[in-house]
# Entry
Amino acid sequence: MPMSTSYDKKKRILLDPAGRRMREIFSEEDIASLRAWFDVVWAKDEPIPLESFEREKQSLFAVVGCGWRFGAVDGMPALRAILDVGGGLPRPDTLDYETCFKRHIRVLTCAPAFGPMVAEMALAMALDCAREVSLGDRLFRSGEERYLHAGNTDTFTLFGRRVGFVGYGGLAQTLQPLLEPFRCPITVYDPWLTERHLRNAGVAPSSLDEVMSESDVIFVLAIPTSHNKAMVTRRHLEMIRPGRVFVLMSRAHVVDFDALTDLVLGGRFKAAVDVFPEEPLAKDHPIRRAESAVLSAHRAGAVKDDLRLIGRMVTDDLDAMNRGLPPHRMQNAEPELVFRL
Amino acid sequence: MPMSTSYDKKKRILLDPAGRRMREIFSEEDIASLRAWFDVVWAKDEPIPLESFEREKQSLFAVVGCGWRFGAVDGMPALRAILDVGGGLPRPDTLDYETCFKRHIRVLTCAPAFGPMVAEMALAMALDCAREVSLGDRLFRSGEERYLHAGNTDTFTLFGRRVGFVGYGGLAQTLQPLLEPFRCPITVYDPWLTERHLRNAGVAPSSLDEVMSESDVIFVLAIPTSHNKAMVTRRHLEMIRPGRVFVLMSRAHVVDFDALTDLVLGGRFKAAVDVFPEEPLAKDHPIRRAESAVLSAHRAGAVKDDLRLIGRMVTDDLDAMNRGLPPHRMQNAEPELVFRL
Amino acid sequence: MPMSTSYDKKKRILLDPAGRRMREIFSEEDIASLRAWFDVVWAKDEPIPLESFEREKQSLFAVVGCGWRFGAVDGMPALRAILDVGGGLPRPDTLDYETCFKRHIRVLTCAPAFGPMVAEMALAMALDCAREVSLGDRLFRSGEERYLHAGNTDTFTLFGRRVGFVGYGGLAQTLQPLLEPFRCPITVYDPWLTERHLRNAGVAPSSLDEVMSESDVIFVLAIPTSHNKAMVTRRHLEMIRPGRVFVLMSRAHVVDFDALTDLVLGGRFKAAVDVFPEEPLAKDHPIRRAESAVLSAHRAGAVKDDLRLIGRMVTDDLDAMNRGLPPHRMQNAEPELVFRL
Amino acid sequence: MPMSTSYDKKKRILLDPAGRRMREIFSEEDIASLRAWFDVVWAKDEPIPLESFEREKQSLFAVVGCGWRFGAVDGMPALRAILDVGGGLPRPDTLDYETCFKRHIRVLTCAPAFGPMVAEMALAMALDCAREVSLGDRLFRSGEERYLHAGNTDTFTLFGRRVGFVGYGGLAQTLQPLLEPFRCPITVYDPWLTERHLRNAGVAPSSLDEVMSESDVIFVLAIPTSHNKAMVTRRHLEMIRPGRVFVLMSRAHVVDFDALTDLVLGGRFKAAVDVFPEEPLAKDHPIRRAESAVLSAHRAGAVKDDLRLIGRMVTDDLDAMNRGLPPHRMQNAEPELVFRL
# Structure
């Protein structure tokens, strides 16, 4: 049911999600709403030809796409919003953010749409490690399963365990409520946030050393930046206590992956890994044989049904902006952070 | 730190947990508290010899054990409580409940101590099935992993999904808050509870047919009784919608296991199974080969560290009863239910 | 909609709520359900004549009433439950509890029905004191109101304040979640409960001295017993810090009311009082003039619409017992506590 | 304990909170932190003389004050933030927002600091009306109190009642969790928000007519704008059902106050009022005599101790911006909303 009130003249929006598909991210209902409220341009799976774009650009109120491949925004006087449905933001070398900020053009990312599915997978993989679900299943298939206590010599429950987060951005904040029923005290290392911010959020600020050495379950949730390449070093990984759980969810970039592989192969601790330094990972990469690892092929943020959340956010925020209100579901590109990426 | 006030004469209690071990269920602190408050008899891992029991029985205030092998309670005038640390209750053919009720002898079970670890495993296995964690890990180990969307053709997240419970006893009530962050509407089949009881608990009462046919994730949590043998029939299992998740946690007794095996082998739905009709399961049982199953060797309720919760409950309730108060942590044998078992 | 399955022969129940009225506690729907499931006897507002009772008693399965005025239960072979709708339990000098326990006759009280309304009033009165709502309204009516900061010289908000409970029974446990959004640490004095029980419930066990001297808001919630007459002495009341809030909800019996009157008149602290040593209170009682008090005429537990909750509990528990299940909404008379009253 | 890392050269900030006092909003700890991280200018209760400001302005990184009285920001090349501690934002006729946005100068309001204390007062006054706390206290003081049910002929509890919000901004969002334990369905009228935004927030979007006619408790929480003067008309007020509760918290501007006065004097419904069309209100204003009203002299947002939250927010956000991060506690002036005010 369309919610925006009608206007004398509909604004024009470009739907050019190339990289994703229309039907993958938009429900019937969302498309119908957008068509009711706006004059919709393109709306196909393949990328709009640049010459077509040039014909339309002057009248466009908003552009929905993956990244930005249209050059300067100068010839787009009506433009009020760029909505990125890829998962990140247009790179600063492709989009002129300075002009966008000056002209109050909103640049928005659908990144928050991935939070729930990735956070759920983080929990699933942490539980899998702590309770040895995959390992137990593997043993069962080979007829070597051990029953009751014999099958629980190295397991633990999450209840009341010390959890450590490396990074406290959107993903961490989405994971936190999933852990709430387990009443785990959460310690956080995030150099971009103040201590009081973290305390107000109900977590304990800490150093990376402490997070690594004191936690029962460590979640790596930090967004990759130019500053945090291999921030979690071999020394840090060696601090993890025996039998504890290390969950790598955000990017392999953040961790010394060779060290991680060595230590998990050596049985020092358990690890759940969804992201790898190269994907696909080499067929002979040794981590594939690690008994105390649970491996996932970058599958956490790609659940089919849930991608429709992207379209719902886009639709809601276009509705708001059409009424002259600020968007409220997608994430705003903040000047401080864009210029730092 | 002992909490009970001192008494002129300490009451005597028998600690005879044979079947479990003293150190497995009691922390140092709990043992110290019990010794401070009571005159403790036996407290060894092996069963107390019956002749020793006969010498002590007249003065015993409470007996802590697994089941009941001491015959009539008539010669035990001081007896006020029987605390079962095995997980169930003494069988009615071994213990004279009628006399216990008449004499206000409390019969208590530590069953609630297992709730959190079994509920956690139920969640872990449900997530494992829905997100294909074990399957993805297995494929990764054989070099057949598929990345991103290609690895998510049959997965779904729990958020907002319809959950069905078969049975709404202590285990279900412990699982419910773990599911809360996922905001799943929960439908329940439990013939022992009234509709209003269920509605007051925040779940929707339903028929078994509806639970099976409408749910995205079905948890079997019912305690086995003489009435519910294979209550979940082949017909019920055939109602599960394609690709949905069936989690068997309480007892295989409740389900037609052959039908379950057939259907899961046929790929009709996904299944997580922690309990089997015979344990250990036959090495050639076909369910071991089911691709869409996650198998666990009755490991949900046997996490080492968490067994200490049993001792904590025993200690707390003995403390309460020593002060003339009702116990509050272990579960009371209710006449209506005991006589029905 | 009746929920109990039909039986060859309906059981008989006596509805004799004299002291309350039928329509006050039972909705149309509840009465209809009871009539559908049971053969209902009497069901009038005035007390059943004893000779009528004598004629019926042999066949009664359950008796719903206020207190017990029918003597021995010996002539009532079918009796399985006594449901008290007055708010307490039959006095031990009127009802032979020993026989009830021996025969597994449930004795139940509707006390939990009053928890929500009394807890809400406790919160309302605490907020009224802390924010000076009634006082501010009184000043406004006399044209003496002071605006903004000038009207807030002695107020405080509840957020994060130290709360103390005297007594941790049903009422306290119902009040606790209402305070949760304010994130107040709660300290409890309750000599009937163990330290661990309290810690498990999320509150901090403490001495009465500490509760009185350290809390910003003190709630007196203890049930009157023969042991706690004026348990909160003048010395305790003098410990309350200046300007803090003392809320008396359960019974005046628990407090030295003369001392309370003196200290509140002297402006030592603020007080909210719903219960008095004699009701109606003497017209010239000095507490009526206390500027820093909020007074309520035992009104917390008597909200008209909410009394229907009593009938709902009675109906639900009769439904359960009719099916041979334990009751689950009303509170069971525990042997330990009954014999102590 | 200062948290910002040291810099070669401290940035300069102006603390000029005139309208508030330094000590009223800043704790010792906050001032110490600001002095450790910044070169602090002025920091006195009286307004900085304009000639002093002129001398300093070129080097200022941030200005903390009430409103804006310094003209153009052109001569302030270092300026990155204006932090308003008054409660609102600088008026658009005093501050050149366009230039601020172009230069990425953050304009921030401490408005969220008032949310908790105003929301608490809204709950307190709603409970006071529904349970007749002030009225009951008034009757008690004049010796006319009525006990138990006689004193509850017109009261109701909040549990499960239909709540209506007029406006769903920061205050409403702070009030919502305080109502959560009462499990009230909440209906909202807010023409600035989309239906889906409201549904996602757990409330039901609705028309103003419906909110007025269907709710048991109505909270007016809308910020005054040029468009909503007397938006709640006499016709709307006449829709309130008899005996229900109307709580006016945000501004009298939003309501036809004469109509409100008439209807409350006529006993049509109950009203709690914290804000008035003129303050102080005329001594002979008839609403002062309304028996079914609870009146408060604009006291909801002026609790002494809680004003320190303003200083805490200012300190946290200056810390963040000093590190090149976005502020996260104060509220950002959004272009869409500023240009609409």
Q: What stands out?
A: The first helix of chain D runs from residue 22 to 25. The longest strand of chain D covers residues 60-65. The mean pLDDT of chain D is 94.
